[in-house]
Specification:
The structure holds 3 protein chains of 3 kinds. By secondary structure, chain A is mostly helical. Chain A has one domain. Helix content of chain A is about 60%, strand content about 5%. In chain A, helix 1 runs antiparallel to helix 3. Chain A starts with 5 loop residues before the first helix and ends with a helix. In chain B, the strands form 2 sheets. Chain B has a 3-stranded antiparallel β-sheet, with no helix packed on it. Chain C has a domain of about 50 residues. Classes of the chains: A mainly alpha, B alpha+beta, C mainly alpha. The interface between A and C is medium-sized, with 24 and 20 residues.
Amino acid sequence: MTISDPTMDVVYKAMQGLAARQRATADNIANVETPGYKATKVDFESSLRQAITIGDPNQAQPAVTKSTEPNGPNENNVNIDDETVSEIDTNLKYQTMVEAMNAKFRLLRTAIGN
Amino acid sequence: MTIFGAINTAGSGLGVYRTWMDAVSDNIANMNDAVPGDQPAFQERFVEAAAKGDATGVGNGVEVKGITYGPTTGRLAFDPTNPSADAQGYVKYPDIDLGEQMTQMMAAQRAYQANLATIDRAKDAYQQALELGK
Amino acid sequence: MAIGAIGAAITTAASNTTPVVPAPAVTGTEESGANFGNLIAKALDSVQGAQSNADSLATKAATGDLTDVHDYMIASTEASMATELTVAVRNKAVEAFNDIMRMQI
C-alpha cells in the first residue's frame, strides 16, 4: 500500500488472515463428508502479535495447519458446528476490519479537505 | 471473553447438544439388541456436560466431560424359540425406555435451536454495533 | 468520554473568541490572539489523543485482543468528529483571515 501508517498495515494483514480463514472454512464445510479429509485451520493472530511487537506488521504470515481433532466416521475430522460458528465469527471480524480501514481513509479525506 | 464471545459460547453449546442427540439416537437404534441371558446387554449412553472455565464469573460455555454407560443388567425375557436364547431359554434386552429417550431427544433439539437463536441474535447485535457513527 | 470534552471545547470557543481588533489596540489583539492560539493547540492535542486511541483499539481488534467491538467503533467516531471539528475551525480561521485582508483601509 502506498498511503499507509502502521495501523493500516496491521488492519490490512488482519484482513488477509481473515480472508484465508474464510476460504479454509468454506473448504472444510464442502468436504464434511469426504473420507480421510482433515480440517484446515488458519492462525494469523499469533504471527501478527509478534510482528507488532518487533514493529514490522508486514512480516506477519498466516499459519495454515491441519486440525488435530479426533476423527469421526470415514476418518474425517471436520466439526460442522465449529465451522459454522467460525464462519459467522470471521465474517463479523472482517466487517470490523473493513470499517477500521474505511475510518482511516475517511480521516485522511477530511484532512485533505472534503 | 473474546470479541464476539457470545457467538463462540453458543457454538460450544451446539457441539454438546449434537453429541447428546447422537447418544440418544444410538440408544434408540440399539433398543432391541437381543443377547443371550447370561451376557451383558447394550449399555445406555449418557452424556456428561460441564461448564468450561472458571467456576465464578461469566464463563466460556459448555463442554462434554465424558460419556458414561448405564448398567449391563438389562431385562430378561423368556423366549426359547429366539436364536439368541441361552441354555435356559432367556434373552436379554437393554433396559432403555423409548418414551424417556424421545423426551431427551426433544430437550436436546430445543436446546440446539435455542443456541442457534442465540448466535443469530448476537450476530445482529454486533452488526448494529459496527454501524456506530455512520 | 472525549465527546464531552469536544462539547466543552465548543462552548469554550464561543466564550473565548473575541472579535479581532486591528492595529491601534495592540494589547487587545495579543489577548484575543493568545486565547485563539490556546484553543487551536488544545483542539489539536485532543485530536491527536483521539486518533491514537482509535489506532490502538484497531490494532487490538486486528489481533483478536479486543473485548468489545463498540469500544473501537466509539473511539473511531470520536476521532473522526474531532478531526472534522479541527478542519472546520481551520477553514473558518482561514476564511476570517482572508476577509480581514480584503478589508479596505
